[in-house]
């Protein structure tokens, strides 16, 4: 899947995705990824909480792409972020990528953690 081009100043968009991969800033990334501003790094999934907790104060909330379908976040995962007062918005990965692109193009303080489809 490819997305329409949108203006980005301080962030990089998700340009596309496919089975097990994402295209971001012209590069293919295998597996789960975390995007925040101009930074893209591998993400270890629900057990990798530290990389998301480090974003506190830099973002208003984190969009979580839960894979091909929207699923509930694991209770233990969700509770860690509730205690840290970091908002999470789970949605299917395709929807999460599109939502992140729109919000990032508007200059919003948002990050996205995406599990592959």
From TrEMBL:
It comes from the Bacteria. Coiled coil: none annotated. Gene3D superfamilies: MTH938-like. CDD domains: Mth938-like (cd00248). InterPro entries: MTH938-like_sf, NDUFAF3/AAMDC. It comes from Celeribacter baekdonensis. SUPFAM superfamilies: MTH938-like (SSF64076). This is Mth938-like domain-containing protein.
